[in-house]
Design brief:
homodimer; about 210 residues; alpha/beta; Rossmann fold; seven-stranded mixed beta sheet; 8 helices; about 35% helix; about 20% strand
Chain lengths: ~210, ~210
């Protein structure tokens, strides 16, 4: 079971690592980080590089695709190398997945037309403009397409997908070994729960 | 505010990325990944490499240190390059932190003697043998030493520490932008909550 996590310049690190750490715990999982070219790929802060061990061309038929997001929409939606690989790989996948604004890449590739999907809360409207039926849920399954909300939600997505693939007990074992018993010190993780002025500040920065 | 995340062969990826993504959102945060030598460092599965942009020698006086864990205890506790750097850096840090079995490195370096600390649930006894007062809590503050439980707990630790450093509102903004509103599909993230036979299976594998 080959699981390809697609990297591109300015991706968000935790978007990629949440599914990596959870899906990577599946028996038989052969995870590979891929990018247009093999080699280091910098994240959105420029302060971290993950190594893509293979190029897109090296990995034409993964069983599972994971696309992380990143804060600059055009990095996903105008990235022809990424979109072309996604379209070709998707023809053979059993699951095609995204975290955060990675769903904009799937949608821009034409893979989410009319499908229910999610994205970072600041990108939900944009996701709709690319043809998906945008929901505010944290993890959305629509057929073989699985999309997760912002950044950290890739952990929840990875566990949910692990359960679908290998059963509840295997997913629970992964949860136990990653000690995923969340105890956030605040309850501000969604626009419904966070202080309204913070939500508005971020919405205004996106509008600007 | 220089934040140094220490890498070593066979570290666990999410241990490093949880604090990276949360603490990296602090205003003025200058995060740097460091290792004995600059260059790619492989994780515990061998399937992922993060790039250490600097060597330990390049970063002698970070303000904050983060040590991730990894499944092979001796990778932390017998790693003299890591332990030596931790001791020297700790003399100047404002915060010295760990995730998962990274606390075994701090303890082996002599930095947690008699202090309250935590670790991955499977490593709590071992942490006690290295001189810390082991607790089962998810995030433990003892003076400037902050330790987190297994793997995913570094996200909670990063947010809690962000709040201490920059105030609640900044930490809430980080939580909102990382959309950390956890919705695990199972409630099996701790040995108290997971199915007993899974807990016993992992305990038996550690004993073996």
């Amino acid at each position: 079971m080959q699981i390809a996590i697609a990297l591109y310049e300015r991706f968000t690190a935790l978007d990629a690592i949440g599914p990596y750490q959870t899906l990577g715990g599946l028996p038989g999982a052969d995870v590979v980080l891929v990018a247009e070219q093999a080699g280091p790929v910098r994240d959105d802060s420029g302060r971290l590089a993950l190594v893509a061990d293979k190029s897109f061309a090296d990995v034409p038929r993964p069983d599972i695709v994971v696309v992380p997001g990143g804060p600059e929409q055009r990095d996903q939606t105008e990235n022809e190398a990424l979109l072309g690989w996604l379209r070709a790989a998707d023809a053979h996948t059993t699951w095609t997945t995204s975290v955060c604004t990675g769903s904009l890449a799937l949608a821009a590739a034409g893979l989410l037309d009319g499908r229910e999907a999610t994205s970072h809360w600041l990108a939900l409207e944009e996701l709709g403009r690319f043809g998906a039926r945008s929901t505010g849920q944290r993890v959305v399954f629509d057929g073989k397409y699985v999309t997760a909300a912002g950044v950290s939600s890739g952990i929840d997505m990875g566990l949910a997908l692990a359960g679908r693939i290998a059963g509840d007990e295997t997913a629970q074992a992964i949860q136990l070994m990653t000690e995923y018993d969340p105890q956030p010190p605040y309850d501000a993780g969604s626009p419904e729960k966070a202080p309204a002025h913070l939500v508005e500040r971020f919405r205004a920065s996106v509008r600007a």
